[in-house]
Amino acid sequence: MVSAVSGHGLKRDYVNMNSISPNVKLAVMCAEDQLFPDHNGFDFKSIEKARKHNQKSKSLRGASTISQQVAKNVFLWQHGGYFRKGLEVYFTFMIENIWSKKRILEMYLNVAEMGEGVFGVEAAAKKYFHKSAKNLTRTESAMIAACLPNPKGYTIKPLSKHVSLRYPWILRQMGNLETDVDIKKLIE
After folding, report:
1. Strand pairing report for 10-14 and 2-7
2. Mean pLDDT of 47-66
3. Separation of alpha carbons 143 and 119, rounded Å
4. Helical segments of the chain, H only
5. In 10 A of CB 51, how many CB atoms?
């Protein structure tokens, strides 16, 4: 394990897939992108659902896959308009054609923000549960996954209402999806 960045409230510890609990790999796919093993970087059905929802509602719904989030977090900046989104499409296409799904998931688990100034699952595991990512339980993993849509607002400690309501759903999804052959290959 190598500490890549530390200071001024920013914590990030990069770990390889062997140092990450299968529980958190499964929880993140259940929470963020259940079709991750099967798509080519884009979930067009979810994109269309989000588009329809966003036309009718004041609350915005996203449809970014894990691959798109990696493209944004590794190669691009957080906010932006159509230009950044176009670059995100390009980089998503590239990583889906160059990296394996395991590599994409590993990158996601190491670069995703999981709390204020907490980047990556190792830093989250240490901050919230005082252990390494390799030792996260199903419940702890589901709690981390529940914060991902808005890690600054959906807090694990103190437990926000969103996380307290969402993590039991993620646990149920984990039970439903853990036997899927393609998901099993990614969490081993």
Report:
1. antiparallel
2. 66
3. 15
4. 22-32, 44-56, 66-75, 82-98, 101-111, 121-129, 138-147, 161-177, 181-187
5. 11
Give Cβ neighbours of residue 25 (< 8 Å, ≥ 6 apart). 17, 105, 109, 186, 187
Q: Report d(CA 23, CA 156) in Å as an integer.
A: 17
H or E element: which one contains 4?
Answer: strand 2-7
Homologous superfamily of the 2-179 domain (CATH): Biosynthetic peptidoglycan transglycosylase-like (1.10.3810.10)
- Given a cut of 80, whether residue 47 has pLDDT beyond it is no
State pLDDT tens for residues 75-130. Answer: 877 777 778 788 888 999 999 999 999 999 999 999 999 999 999 999 999 999 99
- Domain coordinates in residue numbering, the chain: 2-179
Report how far residue 135's alpha carbon sits from residue 121's, in angstroms, rounded to the nearest whole number.
11
How far apart, in Å, do the first and last CA atoms of the chain sit? 19
The residue to which tokens 């998931």 are assigned = 105
Q: Report the 10 Å Cβ neighbour count for 52.
A: 11
State the residue for tokens 């989250």: 124
How far apart are the C-alpha atoms of 186 and 23, rounded to whole Å? 11
Element at 133 (helix H, strand E): none
> Whole-model pTM?
0.86
